[in-house]
Amino acid sequence: MGGASSIYNDIDLAWLMRLRTVVARLGEMDCARWWNSQGQLGRQGATVLRRGFPRTHYFAQAKSVQMIAAARCAEIFDPRETVNLWRLTDDLEDRLDSIWEGWLDDAANWQSFFERVAGLKSTDVAATLKDFDLVTDAEVEAHGKIKKSADGRSLQIPEKFEGRRRVVALLALSFSASVPGSLVVPYARLADA
């Protein structure tokens, strides 16, 4: 899962996949109710999709819920010249897509991660991301200093996105501004915007 092609600036793309998957699971209807997928990343989803995708069902589950999360976030708040956890720069998204097949070939090494995600029932974003070792103490501390937006539907990361891990981690952590049943969409301005 390593190699030069799996790194974008200082973002490990496998880390990004894990980060997105954990947040996607936390937002499902049987957890925080931010998007309309019911336990698809849970054990029931694995059972259903395993029949049609015996080797790659975990990735099919993750991709599906990530797409649902992206669509829901875009419905609520989607300004131009910004990024969010589900829609980063085209170059970064292209790189992520290009290594997807390699992960499918290495699906057995991802199994324990996906099984752990399936067992999640939390709505505590920061604690869960910390428990999965996906964010650092410094990132959690930086997130704690971000002020909520007045509009109640978005939260702007104060740093601009230059393709670096820190802003992506803050985007994920900032879903904690949401409460169960009420989604707040974290976003960051592009550095060249």
Structure characterization notes:
The longest helix is centred in the middle third of the chain and has 20 residues, at 57-76. By secondary structure, the protein is mainly α. It contains eight helices and five strands. The strands form two sheets. The protein has a three-stranded mixed sheet with strand order 3-5-4, with helices on one face. A two-stranded antiparallel ribbon has the order 1-2. The model has no long low-confidence stretch (mean pLDDT 88). Helix 8 (165-173) links the parallel strand 4 (154-156) and strand 5 (185-189). It has helices at residues 13-26, 43-52, 57-76, 90-105, 111-118, 125-131, 137-144, 165-173; strands spanning 7-8, 11-12, 82-83, 154-156, 185-189.
Helices and strands in order, then pairings?
Blueprint (H helix, E strand, L loop, with lengths): L6 E2 L2 E2 H14 L16 H10 L4 H20 L5 E2 L6 H16 L5 H8 L6 H7 L5 H8 L9 E3 L8 H9 L11 E5 L4
Parallel strand pairs: 4-5
Antiparallel strand pairs: 1-2, 3-5
Helix pairs in contact: 1-3, 2-3, 7-8
Report the β-strand fraction as a percent range: 5-15%
Q: From N to C, what is the helix and strand string?
A: EEHHHEHHHHEHE
What percentage of residues falls in helices of 4 or more residues? 40-55%
Number of helical elements: 8
Distance between the termini: 33 Å
Q: What does the overall shape look like?
A: globular
Q: Please, what is the average pLDDT? A: 88
Radius of gyration: 16 Å
Overview in brief:
The chain is mostly helical. Helices cover 48% and strands 7% of the residues.
